[in-house]
Amino acid sequence: ALDSMLEVHRLFWNYERLIVLCLTCADVTPAAAKDIEELAGSSDASALVMDLMLLTHKALAAELKDQGRMPRAPSADDYRDWLSRKRVLNGLTKDALMDGSLRAHEKMPCLEYEERKRIETLALAIEYLTLAERVEHGALQTFASELPQGNVCRCETLRAILDLIRTVECSDAACSAFIESWLLDICMQDAEAISNLEGNLLQLLCSTAAGLPIMVSSTLGVAAGGPNEWEKPGSPICCLGQSGRSIPRSDGLSLALMR
Question: Which of 159, 152, 148, 160 lies closest to 116 in space, CA to CA?
């Protein structure tokens, strides 16, 4: 029961906030507007914010993966528009997470370590390769499809990144920046993110911090280089298998990983 005008105002402000959130999410992902409308009509108010965040993140990622969501030959402006909408979604998510009860939600790991990091990984690919190096949309679409389900911070994602680099023409500097940004800014963003890393990836990062390159093979996937590669002058961050291509590492990478 509403026993005071204060409770009436509180209820009104809460529903107004939810309506604005629904409309903004629909602006971020117009293709999912109908799904957002259906969710708003069927979801309980207490669960609506989390369900909206998950739906919008998934829909934004799907624009890069699914045929028909983007123009057949997307322009640089199309990708910049996607990045702009991604930044709006980041702001919405940060505002939503200021509610302490949302952080305790059972779906919080799915939002934080699956969908948000998937979006950030795709954004790095657009920034470093698609926009800076003009990598074709087909390669980006394949990369988006090959990202694993569940936790994105795992060796399978790193393999997808290296496969993308191996199959496109792009500068060593752009490739190095892409890999290092993914490792440092997404996988090792903070102590909580590090605690949620896949065990195999954490071991690989420890080897990388020690100076060993990441090796790619058809049988082992991604693994640390052997002892003969340790402390070799100019040791690369990774070696791309049979192609013989090596991607250089920045001078401060090992120190950044150890911190």
Answer: 152
